[in-house]
Automatic annotation (TrEMBL):
Pfam families reported for this sequence: Glycos_transf_4
Organism: Psychroserpens burtonensis
Protein name as catalogued: Undecaprenyl/decaprenyl-phosphate alpha-N-acetylglucosaminyl 1-phosphate transferase
Principal location listed in the UniProt entry: membrane
Transmembrane regions: 16-40, 61-81, 87-104, 116-136, 148-168, 175-192, 198-218, 225-246, 266-286, 307-332, 338-357
Membrane topology: Multi-pass membrane protein
Keyword Isomerase: no
Swiss-Prot/TrEMBL cofactor(s): Mg(2+)
GO biological process: cell wall macromolecule biosynthetic process; cell wall organization; lipopolysaccharide biosynthetic process
Length: 365
């Protein structure tokens, strides 16, 4: 009976049921895994110790990435046999590399060089063996097609940029997980609508794992952080989704996003990229120090210093990023260069508004 069911079942013809099952399975596995991780972390003292840069005052388990990784691998292993096995295996290979690098960094210390080399290797696995890369700039600066090796190099740069930009925003409760949840939801809809079921399955599984994680990340009693293990895996998957979306759009001249995919991708990644470029500018040109030397000048730190709570900071940033994405989808008819220029303008203004409103509220008697 089971054999006949598997032979006759087609994920493509039952996509809603398939994706719903992937979400439920990922959520259930992650939700059941996190309490065990919290228990072991407390027993073995595998905790994040607050310091001068920490936004928390209590010792907190920092191995949430284990639960995210485990749930994703189980879902991809089960579903991979009926989808694009090659893509599933390579994605699992990439996140496994980053899982062990992040785990070592969370438990002991990992040199930036080792982390960087691991990120390059994981990204190249997917770029080379799936040939999923940014083939051109879609008319940005009048560049349409890139030479093959330039395309690989540029795609690798995008991977490394997104992975590390995403790692930098993991500073207050729920922020990294909520931004990843928003981006994954948008990509799930895009992949579903374009028939990319394998990509939709991975993104939906990530949604399930993140919903479970956020339940504990926002908790006051059973709190857990995702750590470098989680943030690198999330950054890697978001980079993979971004590049896959741009690549597929550029190869399909009939796609609604044929020219607009870079602007849409930038709108989804606006916060982590803006925060990264902003913090590097401040460290290099204002503070005259290494751009990799940690401090408390991130945008989420500014929210906290202005009087916002962790939850208010997270919800405000996620809401602003959602508005940015909605506006980007309503500018598809514009020239791509115009879309990107306007995106930077309204995106920056929207992130300035919460600080302006807070100042006015504080001045009100």
């Amino acid at each position: 009976m089971i054999k006949n069911l598997l032979e006759n079942f087609s994920p493509e013809n039952n996509s809603i049921l398939w994706l719903t099952s992937a979400f439920i399975l990922a959520f259930f596995i992650a939700f059941r895994t996190f309490p065990t991780i919290i228990y072991i972390s407390n027993r073995k003292h595998l905790m994040d110790e607050p310091d001068s840069r920490s936004m928390h005052s209590k010792r907190t388990p920092t191995l949430g990435g284990i639960g995210i990784f485990f749930s994703l691998v189980v879902v991809m292993t089960i579903t991979g046999a009926m989808l694009n096995t090659k893509v599933m295996l390579l994605v699992m290979g990439g996140i496994t590399i980053l899982f062990f690098l992040g785990l070592k960094d969370d438990l002991t210390v990992l040199s930036p060089r080792s982390k960087f080399l691991g990120q390059i290797f994981a990204a190249l696995l997917l770029i080379v063996f799936t040939d999923t890369r940014i083939i051109g700039l879609s008319s940005i600066l009048d560049v349409y097609t890139l030479p093959y090796w330039v395309s690989i190099g540029f795609t690798l740069f995008v991977y490394i940029l997104i992975i590390n930009a995403y790692n930098l925003i993991d500073g207050v409760d729920g922020l990294a997980g909520s931004i990843a949840l928003l981006i994954s939801i948008v990509f799930s809809v895009l992949f579903y609508n374009t028939g990319a079921l394998s990509l939709a399955t991975i993104s939906v599984a990530l949604i399930g794992a993140l919903v479970a994680f956020l339940r504990f990340n926002f908790s006051s009693k059973n709190k857990i952080f995702m750590g470098d293990t989680g943030s690198m895996i999330l950054g890697f998957l978001i980079a993979f989704f971004t590049i896959s979306f741009i690549s597929e759009s550029q190869l399909d001249a009939n796609s609604s996003f044929y020219r607009a995919s870079p602007a849409l991708a930038l709108s989804m990644l606006f916060y982590p990229l803006m925060d990264t470029f902003r913090i590097f500018f401040i460290r290099i040109f204002v503070l005259k120090k290494s751009p990799f030397e940690a401090d408390r000048n991130h945008i989420h730190h500014r929210f906290i210093q202005s009087g916002y709570t962790h939850v208010q900071t997270t919800l405000t940033i996620v809401l602003i990023n959602l508005i940015i994405i909605i506006i980007a989808f309503n500018m598809l008819h514009l020239n791509l260069n115009t879309q990107i220029g306007v995106l930077f303008l309204y995106g920056s203004l929207l992130y300035y508004l919460p600080f302006l409103l807070k100042r006015r509220i504080n001045k009100t008697p």
